[in-house]
Backbone:
């Protein structure tokens, strides 16, 4: 019985440490990876350096390696970055508005 109690204390401390520190870090890391993986051209992002930029293009190296993201910091100023340089997506790319079709009027008048 004393042995069981002696093992319960360290086990409880390990579980609490995991729940308080490791699990939140893992969840944040997973969220950041998913957010970077779902980036689209036109998204506004915040970089690790604190720059706010617009995603212009993605370049995948032929021989493998990290995907490079082309970011436009200002009109005409484009820089290359890796996905890890993106801290978060600030706003998604604006979606093009589709022209709405006007409903056709149906006339009950006889056609001649």
Residues:
């Amino acid at each position: 019985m004393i042995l069981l109690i002696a093992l319960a204390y360290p086990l409880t401390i390990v579980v609490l440490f995991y729940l308080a520190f490791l699990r939140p870090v893992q969840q944040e890391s997973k969220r950041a990876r998913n957010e970077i993986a779902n980036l689209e051209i036109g998204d506004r992002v915040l970089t690790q350096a604190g720059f706010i930029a617009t995603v212009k293009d993605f370049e995948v190296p032929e021989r493998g390696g990290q995907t490079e993201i082309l970011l436009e910091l200002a009109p005409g100023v484009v820089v290359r970055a890796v996905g890890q340089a993106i801290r978060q997506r600030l706003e998604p790319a604006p979606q093009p508005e589709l022209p709405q079709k006007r409903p056709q009027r149906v006339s009950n008048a006889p056609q001649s």
User: Anything to note?
Assistant: The CA atoms of residues 44 and 54 lie 4 Å apart.
